[in-house]
Design brief:
InterPro entries: AAA+_ATPase, ABC_transporter-like_ATP-bd, ABC_transporter-like_CS, ABC_transporter_ATP-binding, P-loop_NTPase
Keywords: ATP-binding, Nucleotide-binding, Transport
Structural class: alpha/beta
Strand content: 25-35%
Protein name: ABC-2 type transport system ATP-binding protein
Radius of gyration: 24 Å
Shape: elongated
Number of strands: 14
Organism: Roseovarius azorensis
GO molecular function: ATP binding; ATP hydrolysis activity
Largest sheet: 6 strands, mixed
Order of helices and strands: EEEHEEHEHHHEHEHEEHEEEHEH
Helix content: 25-40%
Amino acid sequence: MAVIVAVEGLRKVYKDGFEALRGVSLTIEEGEILALLGPNGAGKTTLISALCGITTPTAGRASVGGHDIVRDYRPARQMIGLVPQEIALEPFEKVINTVRFSRGLFGKGRDDALIERILRQLSLWDKRHSRIRELSGGMKRRVLIAKALCHEPRVLFLDEPTAGVDVELRRDMWQVVENLKQSGVTIILTTHYIEEAEAIADRIAVINKGEILLVENKADLMRRMGRKTLRIDLAAPVDAVPAALSDYNLERIEDGHALIYHYDTRGEGTGITRLLQALAAEGLGLRDIETRQSSLEEIFVGLVREDTA
């Protein structure tokens, strides 16, 4: 795929000397969903602000659709839609007027058919004559997305789009994002909900202390860094893990009713067959076994912890 956002050595140093971005380099392909993960203060919002023209980078360069974000500010910004964290909407204005006004800010002519299509896509058409103050938090976030899409951008930045939204509405928003991707929009998503990135992202970028730790395809990342866990439910509890099983580093849980075994799928063998044979040799009966893959959250926490150490 073609690269639509290119970032090279981007730095941002504030007047007090704080370096929010430390030479960030990143490429984003057209039509993908990239999840940008990082703890509070990692530089996520600063990076988005720099790309969207809200803050000026100290050094480095970046382009959107081939337009430099500093030299060619206007055409670069025209290609970008931004959905900020904060819900800043005129409470007494109607939904449809709010969206039309945002389109006008980009010098675009009135296009009622486009506005209707966007509002229908976001399940807002029935609310088009409602005042913003009458909407739920989830609907207000949809209005923010509609505002960001009304000038037909090719790149959409979603900064914590489901913050404060309940689980059901969050999943609805995931579907909205997927629909936007299907329509050809490139999406860069920052989120504190790791399951959100796991559910909808194509690639994962992890940022911490203003530096990109990795950028990788989600499936490849989970396959490369994910570990698997085997849970062994015993027919009868054990007071301690038998000494003969010490090589397996088994974890005793639930008062000895179950054992946990961690293994790496990248190794030559998992050791599970030998473990089960060793359990039988010790006279330990099995009631059930279950495997699970490390989640993206566990991988993310591990990466950030390593970077902090």
